């Protein structure tokens, strides 16, 4: 059902934010209560074992659309939500990792105390493209002493092979394009 909702509601926006990039607009999915509910449930499955038990302590959402998805996933799992932000957006002491994007360079930060040593962490984002954001977030989680458990994304741009940058962390995608 989640895959069907994504296929039906995600809108391609050509040449955004730069010429040659096709932006995947998930706003229609978010605006449809039934689709949003199904998608959140499907993303949360990556934080459960085969018997449906929660196996993660925290859910990390990557700036910015990952926040929209990760916060309700954390609620569904009964876990805390942790934002990974662009540089300079968090008010306290942070870990930082810089990486390459499909159309530039970025730095992500995470509060140093957001994840406790030993925490098992589910990473949630909207689109897995080149894998730079996932790789950087894995590093941030590990710098805090946490363990990345899995990556859960709405869509994966399979032709970009971003999952190869997940450093062995399982990647669950609701839709591969």
UniProtKB/TrEMBL annotation:
Superkingdom field: Bacteria
TM spans (from-to): none
Subcellular location as annotated: Cytoplasm
UniProt cross-references to Pfam families, sorted A to Z: Pribosyltran
E.C. numbers: 2.4.2.7
Domain Phosphoribosyltransferase: 32-146
Alphabetical list of InterPro entries matching this protein: Ade_phspho_trans, PRTase-like, PRTase_dom, UPRTase/APRTase
Family: Belongs to the purine/pyrimidine phosphoribosyltransferase family.
Function: Catalyzes a salvage reaction resulting in the formation of AMP, that is energically less costly than de novo synthesis.
A GO MF term: adenine phosphoribosyltransferase activity
Keyword Transmembrane: no
Pathway: Purine metabolism; AMP biosynthesis via salvage pathway; AMP from adenine: step 1/1
Reaction catalyzed: AMP + diphosphate = 5-phospho-alpha-D-ribose 1-diphosphate + adenine
Keywords: Cytoplasm, Glycosyltransferase, Purine salvage, Transferase
Chief site of localization: cytoplasm
Assembly information from the UniProt record: Homodimer.
UniProt-recorded name of the protein: Adenine phosphoribosyltransferase
């Amino acid at each position: 059902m989640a895959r069907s909702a994504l296929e039906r509601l995600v809108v391609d926006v050509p040449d955004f934010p730069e010429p040659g990039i096709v932006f995947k607009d998930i706003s229609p999915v978010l605006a449809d209560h039934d689709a949003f509910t199904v998608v959140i449930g499907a993303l949360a499955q990556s934080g459960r074992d085969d018997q449906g038990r929660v196996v993660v302590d925290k859910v990390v959402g990557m700036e910015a659309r990952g926040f929209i998805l990760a916060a309700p996933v954390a609620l569904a799992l009964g876990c805390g939500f942790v934002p990974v932000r662009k540089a300079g957006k968090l008010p306290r002491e942070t870990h930082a990792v810089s990486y390459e994007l499909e159309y530039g360079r970025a730095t992500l930060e995470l509060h140093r105390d957001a994840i406790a040593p030993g925490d098992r962490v589910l990473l949630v984002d909207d689109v897995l493209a080149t894998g730079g954001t996932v790789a950087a977030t894995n590093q941030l989680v590990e710098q805090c002493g946490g363990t990345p458990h899995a990556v859960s994304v709405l869509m994966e741009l399979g032709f970009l092979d971003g999952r190869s940058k997940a450093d062995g962390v399982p990647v669950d995608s609701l839709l591969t394009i």
